[in-house]
Amino acid sequence: MRIKSQKDFFAGLMFTIVGAAFGFGASTYTVGNGARMGPGYFPLMLGIVLAILGAFIIFESLVVETEDGEKIGSWAWRPLGFIIGANILFGLLLGGVPKLGIPPMGLIIGIYGLTFVAALAGDEFKAKEVAILATVLAIGSYCAFVLLLKLQFPVWPSFIAG
């Protein structure tokens, strides 16, 4: 069988692998049933749905004819590096690095760092727009996670909050 759409084939393969991994990981928890869901119920169902969706997309990529075969282009290394780097920076800023003596900078500083570094992944960088976005995300995250969900993690740098 010939692959008629490379993009769809590899996207479906990724969905199937991630779905199977979620399903396998969820099987170590108590699953329960629809009426009394355990902690593994939602990840298991999500994994199954994702794997089925991936299988359907793979099937479609083998059956539906496309004009140019929808070839996969080259890797976009620069955006990939900035997005992964932004997430790593967020984790480091949120929790600090005690072994290196770097204190936790908190949620607000972490979100600003994440937003500014992730914005560098795009073709255009407008500092004013990124600052507005970071402010909205910081306020929204503070309201959602600290005020509403009452999660306990540093909001401000430890040398400011005490």
TrEMBL record:
InterPro entries: DUF1468 (IPR009936). The chain crosses the membrane at residues 9-29, 41-63, 75-94, 100-121, 130-149. The keyword Cell division does not apply. The keyword Transmembrane applies. Residues 10-154 form the DUF1468 domain. Keywords: Membrane, Transmembrane, Transmembrane helix. Pfam families: TctB (PF07331). This is Tripartite tricarboxylate transporter TctB family protein. It comes from Ramlibacter pinisoli.
